[in-house]
Amino acid sequence: MGEAHFDEIIHAPWRLRICGLLNRVDQLDFAVLRDTLSLSDSALSKQIKTLEEVGYVASRKAASTNRDDARRLTWLSLTKQGRAAFEAHIRALQEIASSDAGHL
Fold first, then answer.
1. Among residues of the chain, what percentage have pLDDT more than 70?
2. DSSP codes, 42-59
3. How confident is the model at residue 69 (pLDDT cuts 50, 70, 90)?
4. 76 has which bridge partners?
5. Which residues have C-beta within 8 Å of that of residue 97, sequence separation ≥ 6?
6. Can you say whether residue 38 is alpha, beta or left, with left for phi > 0 and alpha for psi between -120 and 50 degrees?
7. 36: pLDDT strictly greater than 70
């Protein structure tokens, strides 16, 4: 288990939720993530782009076996670095939440 580390990139509310959902699975379809979070495509894309830029999220496009047209699904996953950063951030939040207020 790594050291606790508060991560400003992950801590933003939507990105924290995105990482939390992606941490539970190997990969998740963009549309499922969008619908689960009730975000617009553009709002989710903006948050994903930020996470991709720091290496926390990877995306890949794949043909849909359930569609006749050429549209492709976008699959999202946390990278190894992203999982480690998310877990370290959660540990930092737990330390903050459990710390003695008199020692802050």
1. 87
2. HHHHHHHHHHHHTTSEEE
3. low
4. 28, 59
5. none
6. left
7. yes
Contact predicate 88/11, CB 8 Å: no
C-beta of residue 73 within 8 angstroms of C-beta of residue 62: yes
CA distance linking residue 9 with residue 54, whole number of Å: 8
Q: pTM (2 decimals)?
A: 0.86
Mean pLDDT throughout 29-54?
Answer: 97
Q: Which two tokens stand for residue 20?
A: 């939390």
Element (H, E) at 104: none
Domains of the chain, each with CATH number or no CATH:
8-98 (1.10.10.10)
- The residue assigned the tokens 């801590």 is 11
Residue where the block lists tokens 């990105």? 15
